[in-house]
Amino acid sequence: MGTRRRRLFVGLSLLLAIVVASRGQTAPVSEEPASGHISLRAVPSGHAEPRMLPRLPVLPTFPGKPAPPRGLPRMVQTAGIIFSGQVLSVAREPGLGGASIESIAITFHVDRALRGTTTGKNLTIHQWAGLWSSGQRYRAGERVLLFLYPASKLGLTSCVAGPVGRFTVDPRGRVLLSDQHLAVLGRDPFFSGKLQLSLDDFANAIRGVEGEERVQP
Asked: How many CB atoms lie within 10 A of CB 174?
């Protein structure tokens, strides 16, 4: 009877030792990512176990807002008056409409009206005298193609984008493009590589821009 008890005691002791030993082993950690979590490697003893971080959601992408038009489309959209003509006279005015702001009155004969005026008429515009002092000047007899802003409350106007909105027209009626024009308009296939254009070609380009504006939703 004593022998049987000793055998049972030895067997239970061995079984207990096996259980304790199995619990002391570190369970392997899978390196394959679990669904929705970042996988973690086994952490050495003595270091705090890192927290399980949730996987960041993939945010949907949306198309950016279309860039505003540049070059000729922007100039056409901005201008209130577009025409080619010859300068008839230039005169300084002490004040426009009772205001104390000096202005320059420039009178043109309109050879070709493209917006906001009439072919064959004389058109007088008023420009702030400060622009004249800064170099935006006209002389009687010269021919130009102008993109002008709509007149302000004081009746003043100027070329769209400064010198970019003003083109020289030669005696043969060709519109000449300066380096500044090429820098702004050169990316447009219509103007690429060209130093001069006929008034007809230029008018067609402007009408093309206006047609695109009308068909846009």
From this structure: 17
Q: Is residue 62 part of a domain?
A: no
pTM over 0.70: no
In a domain, 152, yes or no: yes
Assess contact for 129 and 138: CB atoms under 8 A.
no
Is 34 a domain residue?
Answer: no
Residue range of the domain that includes 152: 72-215
Look at residue 149 in the predicted model and tell me its pLDDT: 95
Nearest to 103 by CA among 131, 77, 74, 128: 128
Is the distance from CB of 114 to CB of 144 less than 8 angstroms?
Answer: no
Domain count, the chain: 1
- Select from 99, 105, 96, 149 the least CA-distant residue to 124: 105
- How far apart CA 88 and CA 85 sit, in angstroms, is 9
Higher pLDDT, 23 or 93: 93
pLDDT digit string, tens, across residues 50-74: 455 445 444 333 334 333 446 888 8
